[in-house]
């Protein structure tokens, strides 16, 4: 068979969506988590007890002005870490710090928190953030990609970079941030990248030829946008995990926070939001929802677990459930061919060469399409 015949056969065989059994299983798992998360997580304390962290243990947390990220930032700072709130609303972050310092006074050393501006809807902003951070030449111990959007019921929006907004905020921008911060994460090794993902990835599907869901092959809904972006993040993380050599000392982990009462549902109709509040038993508080990310960021066994997955050549990277247990992401996340295409396509979309990770690990420079004016000239 000629190469073009092989390609067209492979195109014909390309999956157009989840099979109905996968789809039903995905929804079963989403509903199961919704109904039983509190029972499944009943062994966990709230707040999650954290070990005392060294003052030079540096954690960057995106989207830390609201919901789960706000809890993650406060608790890591109270445990002693140096916390960097990477946010688009810097005024809100400064106000939160004042409040936290006030509430904390008399309980220990003042909290070590700073604010840096980061807007995930602009890949230039992401690249500039990473340039500014890497220029400090210091270590980074934990990057928590927490910020996310779920614009329920809203029409499709395309960012000024030209990408569907769920895909950009939930997957492309965190992917760019993670890759560009690798030099600092290597300096901070053993270090971790923690991606706040979602059980909703289980009903997601990624068409790598239509990551923005604009060709009309699939009808766009916010659910398609959100779940696809979360699945793309799991797939990209699995490939990143495999590409990073053990010597780099970086663990890549996705977590599910559970179903959590936050601002993520701000676009839901008022009646549904009221319903949310009427069933508090089923829904986690942001403090409860922060436990899986805090666990992934601090538990001493995480690096060992990630290394074990790597040496066993397991097809996916680490995924921690809302009850802080290792779990398996969806069946589709195990699709190695799609994961590898998601990896290539993502690097292309975020303007990085395909050998970026290898070059950064070897200490070489990499030019990104986004960021400082110099890099735009390439
Ligand atoms: N809540 C749930 O039930 C649930 C379930 C599964 C997964 N998750 C995931 O958990 C993560 C945190 O969400 P949450 O529930 O805590 O929601 P949230 O309260 O809405 O918080 C989201 C955070 O992301 C920030 N953000 C949004 N767009 C941004 C952008 N363009 N640039 C920079 N920051 C941006 C928001 O900043 P602003 O305040 O400036 O908008 C906010 O701080 C998300 O990744 C979400 O997908 C949540």
Automatic annotation (TrEMBL):
<dbReference type="InterPro" id="IPR002347">
    <property type="entry name" value="SDR_fam"/>
</dbReference>
<dbReference type="Pfam" id="PF00106">
    <property type="entry name" value="adh_short"/>
</dbReference>
<dbReference type="GO" id="GO:0016491">
    <property type="term" value="F:oxidoreductase activity"/>
</dbReference>
<keyword id="KW-0560">Oxidoreductase</keyword>
<dbReference type="InterPro" id="IPR036291">
    <property type="entry name" value="NAD(P)-bd_dom_sf"/>
</dbReference>
<protein>
    <submittedName>
        <fullName>Uncharacterized protein</fullName>
    </submittedName>
</protein>
<comment type="similarity">
    <text>Belongs to the short-chain dehydrogenases/reductases (SDR) family.</text>
</comment>
């Amino acid at each position: 068979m000629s190469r073009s015949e092989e390609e067209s056969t492979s195109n014909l065989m390309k999956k157009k969506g989840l099979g109905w059994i996968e789809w039903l299983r995905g929804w079963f798992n989403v509903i199961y988590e919704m109904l039983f998360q509190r029972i499944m997580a009943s062994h966990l304390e709230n707040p999650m007890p954290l070990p005392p962290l060294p003052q030079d243990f540096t954690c960057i947390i995106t989207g830390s002005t609201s919901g789960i990220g706000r809890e993650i930032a406060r608790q890591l700072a109270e445990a002693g870490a140096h916390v960097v709130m990477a946010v688009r609303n810097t005024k809100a972050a400064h106000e939160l710090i004042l409040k936290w310092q006030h509430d904390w006074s008399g309980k220990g050393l003042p909290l070590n928190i700073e604010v840096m501006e980061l807007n995930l809807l602009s890949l230039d902003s992401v690249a500039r953030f990473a340039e500014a951070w890497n220029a400090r030449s210091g270590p980074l111990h934990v990057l928590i990609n927490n910020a996310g959007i779920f614009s329920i019921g809203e029409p499709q929006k395309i960012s000024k970079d030209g990408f569907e907004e769920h895909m950009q905020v939930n997957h492309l921008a965190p992917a760019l941030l993670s890759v560009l911060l690798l030099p600092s994460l290597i300096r901070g090794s053993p270090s971790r990248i923690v991606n706040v993902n979602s059980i909703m990835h289980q009903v997601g599907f990624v068409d790598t030829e239509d990551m923005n869901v604009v060709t009309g092959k699939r009808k766009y809904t916010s659910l398609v946008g959100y779940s696809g972006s979360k699945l793309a993040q799991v797939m990209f993380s699995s490939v990143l995990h495999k590409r990073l050599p053990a010597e780099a000392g970086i663990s890549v982990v996705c977590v599910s926070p559970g179903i959590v009462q936050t601002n993520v549902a701000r676009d839901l109709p008022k009646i549904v939001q009221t319903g949310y509040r009427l069933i508090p038993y089923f829904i986690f508080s942001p403090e409860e929802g922060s436990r899986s990310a805090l666990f992934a960021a601090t538990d001493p066994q995480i690096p060992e677990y990630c290394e074990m997955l790597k040496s066993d050549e397991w097809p996916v990277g680490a995924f921690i459930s809302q009850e802080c247990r290792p779990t398996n992401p969806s069946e589709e996340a195990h699709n190695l061919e799609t994961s590898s295409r998601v990896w290539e396509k993502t690097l292309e979309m975020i303007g990085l060469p395909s050998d970026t990770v290898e070059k950064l690990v070897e200490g070489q420079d990499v030019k990104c399409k986004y960021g400082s004016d110099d890099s735009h000239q390439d």
